[in-house]
Amino acid sequence: MTEFIVSLVVMFLSIGVYHWYEKRTPVDKRFTWGEAMIASVYVFYIFFWIYGVVPHFWLQWADSGLQWRADVILQGPHIPFISNTVDGQALGVIASQQDGGWFPFRIPYIVIRDIIAVLIHVVLLGLNIWYWNHWQTRAARAEAAEKAVETPSEFGRPLIREGAR
Questions:
Q1: What are the DSSP calls for the chain, one per residue?
Q2: Where are the domains of the chain?
Q3: Strand partners, 158
């Protein structure tokens, strides 16, 4: 669990470096060859980290720490007066029909582990696309911010009084 949490912290810190650099870099800056190479290595590092290290540590924690194996079946929580009992043993809410419950099929914990790993990849891919768009539209956002600021007069006051048109 510690490795997974540390990998998430490193991921968020790495993304924070992007935000720090994006705020201090002018929109019209022309990157040199060296700066572009350093940026490409950093982006490769982030891709390696978010698509390789973070899911790996999730799978490792689920396998060893949580022990979500193929032989461990999801039963769900036991709720009195709703859950079934078979041979004196209380079943969970989503116990399978093979085990005496109402749910039509068994769900091993390894399937839930893999679904969470896929969701990690999908969410991070969505963030990846958002960040590409965020970097590419910096100029448009800066231009819109400039237009939003009212131009003051020579004396520093707005040219048009609030509410008057």
A1: -HHHHHHHHHHHHHHHHHHHHHHHS-TTPPPPHHHHHHHHHHHHHHHHIIIIIHHHHHHHIIIIIS---TTPBP-----TTTS-EETTEEP-TT-BGGGTSSBSS--BHHHHHHHHHHHHHHHHHHHHHHHHHHHHTHHHHHHHHHHHSPPB-TTSSBSS-TT--
A2: 1-70
A3: 152
The per-residue pLDDT for range 17-47, each reduced to its tens digit, is: 999 998 898 888 889 999 999 999 999 999 9
| Cα–Cα distance list, 95 to 80, 111, 113, 114 (Å) | 14, 15, 18, 20
Give the global pTM. Answer: 0.73
